[in-house]
What does this fold into?
Amino acid sequence: MKTLLLHPDTDGAIAQAGELLAAGQVVGIPTETVYGLGANALDGAAVRQIFAAKGRPSDNPLIVHIADFEQIYDLTAQVSDAAVRLAQAYWPGPMTIILPKASCIPDDVSAGLDTVGIRLPSHPIARAVIRAAGVPIAAPSANLSGRPSTTTAAHVMEDMDGKIAAVVDGGACAVGVESTVVSLAGNVPRLLRPGGISLEQLEAVLGTVEVDRAIRQQIGDDVQVSAPGMKYRHYAPHAPVTAVCGDPVRGADYISDHLTKTSGVICFDEFATRFETQIVHTIGRADDSAAQARAIFDALRAFDHTDVTEIWAQCPDDSGIGLAVANRLKKAAGFHVIEV
Ligand code: TXA
Ligand code: MG
It folds into this structure.
């Protein structure tokens, strides 16, 4: 299959993406978090092509994307007060709400669960494409399963060229890590995946929010996890990663002490000069976790074009969007984490 690269400022590109989706094809679309691999969420056969293109395990459900709030009532019969308050606070934006699903959602989307993840993205191109398709769009991150997520159209082409109908090039993603996944399907709101909306922001609207333990630690294969995606090795470059958490100065010292000739380093900007002999990718200043979120997946992917045999990564603390950056780094490291 030839994968078209569509430029949204070209006449007819958005309409073409919408037509491909409406016809049951898979299209890469930019969102404010990461690129998504979209298909008609109401068409099981279309959705199965997403799983095939990604090599995604079929027990891992997909998020359904809508362009306008009212579409939520087509996807779930149970829009609680809490869901409305969350949506008013953070939609359109980088947050997915898990609710009991309506019967129109194919099992391929929900992976057999009785819930569905719903997201109203803020990216104008994402919303225009969803509107042009005329249906809700199921979309996981547009990477091969297990690889770092994609934050540019070039990343998507790297993983998906020849496997999907088209990619819409919307430039680099503004948030850079995926949406926050919060479940309102149980008695107490539960954070299943940290992301663009912080835990503190959720708590400001919901009060108490439980934090799934799969966010901070490795969960064994035998354990039932709330978000199936959290149990898989994820975000991993080819070379093994070690995440170094704690005080950044002590972390930089630790990394310096353990480098070999072929070590790569992911570090905060102010420490780059410490590692001039290595291949280094900086991800923003230590106190700027929003910048780190934008840079982290590109940095993880970049090492695959080099000969580094191991990667040392400075890891931010858990405040704000730092919780999401730290989660992605720890997962990329298979939870091989050093606390300094
Ligand atoms: O920012 C994002 O959320 C991006 C963009 C494209 O919107 N999408 C994304 O999708 O990250 P994906 O499939 O890579 O990650 C979705 C996560 C997985 O961990 C999945 O297990 C979980 O959300 N999830 C989806 N539906 C769920 C459900 N009904 N119950 C529990 N977890 C669910
Ligand atoms: Mg993903």
Observations:
- The chain has a mean pLDDT of 95.
- Residues 31, 33-34, 36, 60-63, 96, 98, 110, 113, 115-117, 119, 139-141, 178-179, 181, 192-193, 226-230 surround threonylcarbamoyladenylate (ligand 1) (CB under 6 Å).
- The CA atoms of residues 6 and 168 lie 5 Å apart.
